[in-house]
Amino acid sequence: MSTSLLLAAAAVRQARTDPTPGAQHNAALARACLERAGKTGRHLLHAVDTAPGRGLLRLVEAGCLPGICAHYAWRKRRIGQWAAQACADGVRQVLILAAGLDGLSQRLLAQTPALRVFEFDRADTLALKRDALRTLGLDDPCLHLCPGELGAVPLARWQRDLPGFVPEQPTLVIAEGVLMYLPLEAAQTLLRQLARALPDARLIATAMDLRPDGAPGFARQRPWVRTWLGRRGEPFRWGAPRQALPGLLGHGGVRLAAIAEPGDPDDPDPAPGEWVFRGDLTHPHHSVPAAPAHARLRAPALP
Ligand SMILES: C[S@@+](CC[C@H](N)C(=O)[O-])C[C@H]1O[C@@H](n2cnc3c(N)ncnc32)[C@H](O)[C@@H]1O
Questions:
Q1: Ligand 1 test: best mutation among 122, 129, 130, most atoms within 8 Å of CB?
Q2: Residue 290: how many CB atoms within 10 A of its CB?
Q3: Residue range of the domain that includes 87
């Protein structure tokens, strides 16, 4: 079972109690993807759609990472608001790295029809999504699904393969729930390549915090979550405490502008441990403050 299927199941579950259009549209796409995801997808859907199944899911969540589904919704609310604002401010194209089965592109395209959106993820994930979008009548010509492996191909090459992508246009790059799966150096290199290639680009992304034991992860995550993620081939490879984040991101050419406040009294993060932030990608010759010499050393890699 991949993390993108878990997020899709969380989206369907969230929509049961969240009547907002964003949650409902996300759930419709997530459901269509799960229906196409073989036995695992069908089992997840069955669990979400039945009372005993939902009871079981609550138990599993409590035994693995209490509040994680509500955290995903919290993170998506913030990313959705920031992305909508960026589009209202004049962004012309959006590049979503590791978009998974999420429906943010459809919401942004509905809001800004002149926008072009490029989703990047692994081929099997995007094949599932393409089929679901077609069935739902949401296969918009302004949305391009671009299969590939982050870190495997130099940025300049896959950028050439994005049909209609214009590096000079005001661009929003979104990297939600993915940078922590890449080795820190690879994440910084990817961000630096983007900063060099895109003269006018903003970034919205997430990164893990460090737990009291020094490992990257959520504060309330049980020990077996780490083992499970490792077995899935998606371990959290790095994380950073809040004060180290500007330096680590600065090393990737990112000027940090804001971090979503986990302790927001009106809408606190239900499962803290993942930073949601926005900033600008800044060309190395421009004025990103130099990262402290220790910046690359502060975030431990998982064994
Ligand atoms: C936790 S999901 C997040 C999906 C989506 N961004 C969201 O937050 O709803 C992680 C996604 O990253 C993708 N992914 C992980 N490592 C990747 C890599 N090296 N190249 C491309 N995609 C990757 C997976 O296929 C998956 O869709």
A1: 122
A2: 10
A3: 66-296
Q: Residue 256's CB: how many other CB atoms inside 10 A?
A: 19
**Does residue 154 form part of some domain?**
yes
> For ligand 1, what atom is nearest to the CA of residue 152?
19
**CATH number for position 165:** 3.40.50.150
Q: What are the pLDDT digits (tens) for 204-223?
A: 999 999 999 999 999 999 99
Buried b (16+ CB within 10 A) or exposed e, 136-149: bebebebbbbbbbe
**CB under 8 Å to 233, separation ≥6 — which residues?**
none
Total domain count for the chain? 1
Domain assignment present for 35? no
- Per-residue model confidence as pLDDT tens digits over 39-54: 999 999 999 999 999 9
**Percent of the chain whose predicted confidence (pLDDT) is above 70:** 91
Asked if 185 contacts 179 with a C-beta cutoff of 8 angstroms, the reply is no
Among the atoms of ligand 1, which is closest to the Cα of residue 182?
Answer: 19
pLDDT digits (tens, 9 = 90+) for 223-274: 998 998 888 888 999 999 999 999 999 999 999 999 999 999 999 999 999 9
Question: 94 near 143, Cβ under 8 Å?
Answer: no
